[in-house]
Specification:
- This protein has 4 helices and no strands.
- About 6% of the residues have low confidence.
């Protein structure tokens, strides 16, 4: 009977060692999978931050171009002419006054010749004539 008990004890020990090995293997597998998940998350964050960095870099380049344009001599001359009414040497400024219908000189340009037929009939009558008495 001792041999049977001995075989039973060794079988139990082997089963216990196999069970413990499987538990340790499971713990390792769980920790490795957790590490991989964290790695993927960090890689996604890095990709997002790289996209943000590239968009900020493009925006900075656009702002640098705008700053260089606003500090250019051409822009400064244009603003001086528009806002300060300055002119370059040798440049002649011509001011054209807008026409008013009430002033004497400009109302003559707006009048038609006396020979033209002026229809003083009401608008509905003009429309009727336009569509039906062409």
């Amino acid at each position: 009977m001792r041999e049977y008990e001995k075989g039973s004890a060794t079988t139990f020990m082997v089963a216990l060692i196999v069970f413990l090995a499987l538990v340790v293997l499971g713990i390792f597998a769980y920790s490795i999978s957790k590490e991989n998940a964290q790695k993927k998350q960090v890689e996604q964050e890095i990709a997002t931050l790289r996209q943000q960095a590239s968009s900020i870099q493009k925006e900075n380049m656009a702002l640098a171009d705008r700053i260089s344009y606003l500090s250019s001599e051409e822009y400064q001359k244009m603003q001086a002419k528009d806002k300060l009414n300055l002119q370059s040497p040798g440049e002649n400024v011509v001011i054209i006054a807008p026409r008013n219908a009430t002033s004497n000189g400009s109302s003559q340009g707006m009048k038609t010749n006396g020979n033209a037929n002026v229809d003083n009939s009401p608008n509905p009558q003009k429309w009727w004539n336009y569509f039906f008495k062409s």
